[in-house]
Automatic annotation (TrEMBL):
One of the record's GO molecular function terms: alkanesulfonate monooxygenase activity
Keywords assigned by UniProt, alphabetized: Flavoprotein, FMN, Monooxygenase, Oxidoreductase
Residues covered by the Luciferase-like domain: 15-255
GO biological process: alkanesulfonate catabolic process
Name recorded for this polypeptide: Putative F420-dependent oxidoreductase
Pfam families: Bac_luciferase (PF00296)
InterPro entries xrefs: Luciferase-like_dom, Luciferase-like_sf, SsuD_RutA_monooxygenase
Source species of the chain: Sphaerobacter thermophilus (strain ATCC 49802 / DSM 20745 / KCCM 41009 / NCIMB 13125 / S 6022)
Length: 317
């Protein structure tokens, strides 16, 4: 089994990941199936992307819109398949809602996928952000931050220490032991997605996370969006007694290849030549971002290949 090896060149200022299109109609209007996703994943690995990311949704419904729901393939089934069919590239959930699965079960799943991958998993988790999806599945949506706070304690205890005894309002464990252990003594790194939510989720990310994440892809995917977010994350770290420099930072951004001249209000994706995009990626690194997840519009083999020159430019420093 191959252990994780660095994908990026020596000069690359930050890691660059690709969000795979796992839902209906997301592959330039077509619905991707496993052969499509495998081809994209392998091509991204060949081209030098640092990571592959899978969203965790089941049935997305859109308030106030007439379009039908959008179904997606299961996040953790796909991550297990990617773990077994790629060799060096990191894989991660962006992000897995702790409302969908018992947190102890999620720790077991992540531990197993990390072992299958040879230690390449990043466990991205969050509190969930789709009320109609939860309603459709019969999953509670209330008190999400409180549920997440209990869930993350169980997950981190099992993955990092191998044991958990917890008696909470929503979740309980008793003498749980994570056996056998995966390839890393402290388990996979844990990325906590908070977006632009309030101080409570930020403090939980600062207390329990190895990496923080914000989803900018449906808003302003620009480096100038980072400073206020960085200040809030730094403040949360100081609140819990943590050195802000020890918490890695990541953001999901949209790169638009559709060539539109105007965008809906609030949407500002990255556009331009490879040189333009490389400079914008460097600007994210200058703002303290260690890792970006790129949402290509559209996401096809062609657009995955079109980003390769950007990676080459970044590798030059």
């Amino acid at each position: 089994m191959n252990q994780r090896q660095p994908m990026s060149g020596a000069g690359r200022p930050l890691r660059v990941g690709l969000l795979l299109p796992t839902g209906e109609g997301l592959m330039a209007g077509e619905t991707p199936h496993w052969p499509d996703l495998l081809a994209m994943a392998r091509r991204a690995e060949e081209l030098g992307y640092d990571s592959l990311w899978v969203p965790d949704h089941f049935l997305m419904r859109f308030p106030g819109r007439t379009r039908p729901p959008r179904g997606t393939w299961d996040c953790w089934t796909l991550l297990a398949a990617l773990a077994a069919t790629t060799e060096r590239i990191e894989i991660g959930s962006l992000v897995s809602s702790t409302t969908f699965r018992n947190p102890a079960l999620l720790a077991w799943i992540a531990n197993t996928v990390d072992d299958v991958s040879g230690g390449r998993l990043i466990l991205g988790v969050g509190a969930g952000d789709a009320p109609l999806e939860h309603e459709a599945l019969g999953v509670p949506y209330d008190r999400r931050a409180s549920r997440f706070e209990e869930a993350i304690q169980i997950i981190t205890s099992l993955l990092r220490d191998g044991t958990s005894t917890f008696d909470g309002t929503f979740y309980q464990t008793r003498d749980a032991e994570l056996r056998p252990r995966g390839p890393r003594p402290s388990g996979p790194p844990i990325m906590i997605g908070t977006g632009t939510r309030g101080p409570r989720m930020l403090r939980l990310a600062a207390r329990y996370g190895d990496m923080w994440n914000a989803w900018l892809a449906f808003g302003r995917s620009q480096p100038d969006a980072i400073p206020p977010l960085r200040e809030a994350v730094d403040a949360a770290c100081r609140d819990v007694g943590r050195d802000p420099a020890t918490l890695a930072r990541s953001v999901a951004v949209q790169v638009d290849y559709l060539g539109r001249e105007e965008y809906p209000e609030g949407l500002a994706p990255l556009t331009g030549s490879p040189e333009d995009l490389a400079e914008q990626f460097r600007a994210f690194a200058h703002e303290g971002i260690n890792h970006i997840q790129v949402v290509l519009r559209p996401t096809t083999l062609e657009t995955i290949e079109r980003l390769a020159p950007v990676l080459e430019l970044l590798d030059r420093g």
